[in-house]
Design a protein that fits this description.
Chain lengths: 110, 113
C-alpha cells in the first residue's frame, strides 16, 4: 500500500519565478491538504482539495493556487516567488479525517 | 481563526523518565486533536489523536488527555527511549479532522542517556 508521495524532492528557483509541486495521495484517500513549513516552525495550512474543488483555504495570498485531478492527485502552484516562500511544502492525504503526510518538497528561492 | 499554543519549546529528560507536552487552543469549535512526531529531515508522522467526545486515549507508552472546558490537551510519554528524541507538534481542527490543521510551534524533545 503506497503512502503519500511528493515530487520533486528539492527545488531551487529565483525570485519572480513560478513553481509547481505535485502530490499523490495514499491509496483510497480522496482529500489532499497542502502545508508550508518554515525552518523551525510548525506546518501552516495553505488549502485543501476535495472532489476537485478547493474546499478550505488558510491565510495565504492568491499567488498560491492548486488543482486536484480525477485520480485525486494534486498540484500546488506558487507564482511570483518571494524569498520568504523558501520552505518545506508538505501535502497530506485523508479520507477525510486523519491526515497522513508526504515527505515534502524543499523549495529554496534565491 | 484557531490559534494553538505549545509548551515547552524544548524539553530534556533522562532516559526512562516521563515527558509531558502541553497545548492550548482558542476555537471552541475544534473537535479533533492529533499529535505528530517529526524527526530531522523527515515527514511529520501521526503518533496519536483524540476527538472531543473522549477525555483520554492511550497507546502503549503514549497517552493524550483533553480538557474541553479549559481548551487544553497534553501528550504524555512514559519510559522514554533514545528513539523518542524528535520534534513533536500538536494540532487542532474542526469537522472531526476533515478541516485543515492548525499546528503549534513544536517541542524539541531530547532524551539524555
Amino acid at each position: 500500500d503506497a503512502g503519500v508521495t511528493q515530487s520533486p524532492t528539492h527545488l531551487i528557483k529565483t525570485r519572480g519565478q513560478q513553481v509547481t509541486l505535485r502530490c499523490s495521495p495514499k491509496s483510497g484517500h480522496d482529500t489532499v491538504s497542502w502545508y508550508q513549513q518554515a525552518l523551525g516552525q510548525g506546518p501552516q495550512f495553505i488549502f485543501q482539495y476535495y472532489e476537485e474543488e478547493e474546499r478550505q483555504r488558510g491565510n495565504f495570498p492568491d499567488r498560491f493556487s492548486g488543482h486536484q485531478f480525477p485520480n485525486y492527485s494534486s498540484e500546488l502552484n506558487v507564482n511570483a516567488l518571494l524569498l520568504g516562500d523558501s520552505a518545506l511544502y508538505l501535502c497530506a492525504s485523508s479520507l477525510p479525517g486523519t491526515q497522513y503526510f508526504g515527505p515534502g518538497t524543499r523549495l529554496t528561492v534565491l | 481563526g484557531e490559534n494553538v499554543e505549545q509548551h515547552p519549546s524544548t524539553l530534556s529528560v533522562q532516559e526512562g523518565d516521563s515527558a509531558v507536552i502541553k497545548c492550548t487552543y482558542s476555537d471552541s469549535a475544534s473537535n479533533y486533536f492529533p499529535w505528530y512526531k517529526q524527526e530531522l529531515g523527515k515527514r511529520p508522522q501521526l503518533i496519536i489523536d483524540i476527538r472531543s467526545n473522549v477525555g483520554e486515549k492511550k497507546d502503549q507508552r503514549i497517552a493524550v488527555t483533553l480538557n474541553k472546558t479549559a481548551k487544553h490537551f497534553s501528550l504524555h510519554i512514559t519510559e522514554t527511549q533514545p528513539e523518542d528524541s524528535a520534534v513533536y507538534f500538536c494540532a487542532a481542527s474542526s469537522g472531526g479532522g476533515a478541516d485543515g490543521l492548525t499546528f503549534g510551534k513544536g517541542t524539541h524533545l531530547i532524551i539524555q542517556p
